[in-house]
Specification:
Strand content: 15-25%
Shape: globular
Order of helices and strands: EHEHEEHEHE
Number of helices: 4
Helix content: 25-40%
Strand order of the largest sheet: 3-2-1-4-5-6
Largest sheet: 6 strands, parallel
Structural class: alpha/beta
Number of strands: 6
Distance between the termini: 15 Å
Protein backbone atom coordinates (compact mmCIF):
# COMPACT_ATOMS: atom_id res chain seq x y z
CA UNK A 1 0.00 0.00 0.00
CA UNK A 2 1.26 3.41 -0.91
CA UNK A 3 -0.26 6.42 0.84
CA UNK A 4 0.48 9.60 -1.05
CA UNK A 5 1.56 9.97 -4.66
CA UNK A 6 3.58 13.16 -4.58
CA UNK A 7 7.23 13.31 -5.59
CA UNK A 8 8.40 10.70 -3.05
CA UNK A 9 5.33 8.46 -3.35
CA UNK A 10 5.62 8.37 -7.14
CA UNK A 11 9.28 7.36 -6.82
CA UNK A 12 8.29 4.48 -4.56
CA UNK A 13 5.55 3.44 -7.02
CA UNK A 14 8.00 3.48 -9.92
CA UNK A 15 10.50 1.44 -7.91
CA UNK A 16 7.81 -1.16 -7.10
CA UNK A 17 6.93 -1.42 -10.78
CA UNK A 18 10.62 -1.76 -11.67
CA UNK A 19 10.84 -4.60 -9.15
CA UNK A 20 8.14 -6.33 -11.21
CA UNK A 21 5.51 -6.07 -8.45
CA UNK A 22 2.14 -6.68 -10.11
CA UNK A 23 0.04 -3.50 -10.30
CA UNK A 24 -2.90 -5.41 -8.79
CA UNK A 25 -0.76 -5.79 -5.66
CA UNK A 26 -0.06 -2.06 -5.35
CA UNK A 27 -2.82 -0.13 -3.59
CA UNK A 28 -2.45 3.64 -3.88
CA UNK A 29 -4.21 6.09 -1.59
CA UNK A 30 -4.34 9.63 -2.97
CA UNK A 31 -6.74 12.52 -2.35
CA UNK A 32 -6.15 14.19 -5.73
CA UNK A 33 -9.02 12.91 -7.90
CA UNK A 34 -7.35 13.88 -11.18
CA UNK A 35 -4.25 11.95 -10.26
CA UNK A 36 -6.37 9.00 -9.13
CA UNK A 37 -8.00 8.89 -12.57
CA UNK A 38 -4.59 8.77 -14.24
CA UNK A 39 -3.37 6.02 -11.90
CA UNK A 40 -6.56 3.98 -12.38
CA UNK A 41 -6.11 4.29 -16.16
CA UNK A 42 -2.64 2.79 -15.62
CA UNK A 43 -4.32 -0.21 -13.90
CA UNK A 44 -3.35 0.60 -10.32
CA UNK A 45 -5.86 -0.09 -7.56
CA UNK A 46 -6.64 3.29 -6.06
CA UNK A 47 -8.51 4.72 -3.12
CA UNK A 48 -9.22 8.24 -1.90
CA UNK A 49 -9.01 7.22 1.75
CA UNK A 50 -7.29 4.49 3.74
CA UNK A 51 -10.67 3.54 5.22
CA UNK A 52 -11.74 2.27 1.75
CA UNK A 53 -8.99 -0.37 1.68
CA UNK A 54 -10.30 -3.87 2.43
CA UNK A 55 -9.08 -5.58 5.60
CA UNK A 56 -6.17 -7.99 5.30
CA UNK A 57 -7.34 -11.54 4.70
CA UNK A 58 -4.58 -13.26 6.64
CA UNK A 59 -1.77 -12.17 4.33
CA UNK A 60 1.03 -9.82 5.27
CA UNK A 61 0.79 -6.27 4.07
CA UNK A 62 3.51 -3.67 3.68
CA UNK A 63 2.83 0.03 3.56
CA UNK A 64 4.63 3.16 2.51
CA UNK A 65 3.48 6.44 4.03
CA UNK A 66 4.51 9.36 1.81
CA UNK A 67 1.63 11.80 2.21
CA UNK A 68 1.52 15.24 3.86
CA UNK A 69 3.83 15.34 6.91
CA UNK A 70 1.24 15.94 9.66
CA UNK A 71 -0.72 12.93 8.36
CA UNK A 72 2.18 10.46 8.52
CA UNK A 73 1.52 8.95 11.95
CA UNK A 74 -2.30 8.89 11.68
CA UNK A 75 -1.93 7.21 8.27
CA UNK A 76 0.55 4.68 9.66
CA UNK A 77 -1.85 3.81 12.47
CA UNK A 78 -4.70 3.35 10.00
CA UNK A 79 -2.53 1.03 7.89
CA UNK A 80 -1.66 -1.02 10.95
CA UNK A 81 -5.39 -1.21 11.71
CA UNK A 82 -5.85 -2.62 8.18
CA UNK A 83 -3.27 -5.34 8.78
CA UNK A 84 0.04 -3.78 7.73
CA UNK A 85 2.92 -5.19 9.71
CA UNK A 86 5.80 -3.62 7.75
CA UNK A 87 6.00 0.12 7.12
CA UNK A 88 8.25 2.73 5.61
CA UNK A 89 7.23 6.15 6.88
CA UNK A 90 8.52 9.37 5.40
CA UNK A 91 9.89 11.86 7.86
CA UNK A 92 8.78 13.45 10.04
CA UNK A 93 6.87 10.57 11.60
CA UNK A 94 5.09 12.88 14.02
CA UNK A 95 5.14 16.36 15.51
CA UNK A 96 4.03 14.91 18.85
CA UNK A 97 6.50 13.05 21.06
CA UNK A 98 3.60 11.57 23.07
CA UNK A 99 2.00 10.17 19.90
CA UNK A 100 5.36 8.85 18.74
CA UNK A 101 5.88 7.05 22.06
CA UNK A 102 2.41 5.45 21.76
CA UNK A 103 3.24 4.32 18.22
CA UNK A 104 6.57 2.90 19.37
CA UNK A 105 4.77 0.90 22.07
CA UNK A 106 2.25 -0.33 19.49
CA UNK A 107 5.09 -1.42 17.22
CA UNK A 108 6.77 -3.36 20.00
CA UNK A 109 3.53 -4.97 21.20
CA UNK A 110 2.50 -6.07 17.69
CA UNK A 111 6.04 -6.86 16.49
CA UNK A 112 5.79 -4.44 13.58
CA UNK A 113 8.71 -3.59 11.34
CA UNK A 114 8.88 0.16 10.86
CA UNK A 115 11.60 2.24 9.30
CA UNK A 116 11.82 5.89 8.40
CA UNK A 117 12.67 7.23 4.97
CA UNK A 118 15.21 4.57 4.05
CA UNK A 119 14.76 3.12 0.62
CA UNK A 120 13.89 -0.56 0.85
CA UNK A 121 17.20 -1.82 -0.44
CA UNK A 122 18.28 -1.11 3.15
CA UNK A 123 15.21 -2.62 4.82
CA UNK A 124 14.40 -5.96 3.19
CA UNK A 125 10.71 -4.93 3.26
CA UNK A 126 9.90 -6.27 -0.23
CA UNK A 127 11.30 -9.75 0.35
Amino acid sequence: MLVGHGSIGSRFKDALVNLKIDKKDIYIVEKNKELLSVLKAQNFICFEDIEEIPESDGFELAGIVANWGPDHLPSANKLVDKGCNRLIIEKPISHSIADLIKFKERCKKNKLFVTVHYFWKYTNIVS
